[in-house]
Amino acid sequence: MRREWELDDLIASWTLVDADQELLVKLHPPSRLSFALMVKFFEIEGRFPRHRGELPEVAVDFVARQLGVPAGAPFEVTGRAVERFRTQIRELLGFRVSTRGDEDKMIAWLAQEVCPSELNEDRQREAVLARCRAERIEPPGRMSRIIGSANRIADERFCAMIVGRLSAGVAQSLWALIVDGDDESGFFAELKADPGKLGLETLLAEITKLQRIRAIALPAGAG
């Protein structure tokens, strides 16, 4: 949730419409601000706030003024006391709680459609939130598990695809690069190391590395 809101944006996104007001009339005054803030936040973000700090102060004040609530009035957006509000808001907006089956489907979709081309986890998270909104599902709480599992599956598929393009001899040569020595020595460690200060000796050493790599004879398009 962004922190800065101009008046026009507040009016467009945080104004309580007639349907909101009808629901609020049924609540006790101390609960109206909490309910109203949760409704508008969910409409904007497609999820409930994780804590009070996610709600911009200017938006809280704007909603409070519409309700005739004094500035600084207390409100809650998490905890057992507001679970009933969450249920009502889901029903109002046509959303449902995500299931384990939804999570598994999201992992499969993310691994197939997003992770191969988008490596940034923040943008992967945005993709999940957008898909949840499109499918009218409240985003799952275990977002890190979904993203981690999807990336692992995508990595495994990519490695399997690359290995499948290699002959047995090439695969054996590449494996030898890795197992030759340990993390601190061997040709693979040399490849990862900084070549150092530019000079004739450095240039010759890098040419030697290149020749050794070319000798493996990787097929065109394997990378």
Write up this protein.
- This protein is elongated.
- It is mostly helical and 223 residues long.
- Helices cover 63% and strands 2% of the residues.
- It has helices spanning 7-14, 18-25, 29-45, 57-67, 83-93, 100-114, 121-134, 143-164, 168-179, 187-192, 200-215; strands at residues 96-97, 137-138.
- The protein folds into three domains: 7-94, no CATH class; 97-164; 168-215, no CATH class.
- Helix 3 (29-45) crosses helix 4 (57-67) and helix 6 packs across helix 8 (143-164).
- The protein has a two-stranded parallel ribbon.
- The model has no long low-confidence stretch (mean pLDDT 85).
Short recap of the structure:
With 223 residues, the chain is mainly α.
Which key features would you list for this structure?
single chain, 223 residues, mainly alpha
Mean pLDDT: 85
- Care to count the β-strands? 2
The shape is elongated
Q: Report the order of strands and helices.
A: HHHHHEHHEHHHH
Structural class: mainly alpha
- As for the number of domains, it is 3
SSE topology:
Elements: H1 7-14, H2 18-25, H3 29-45, H4 57-67, H5 83-93, E1 96-97, H6 100-114, H7 121-134, E2 137-138, H8 143-164, H9 168-179, H10 187-192, H11 200-215
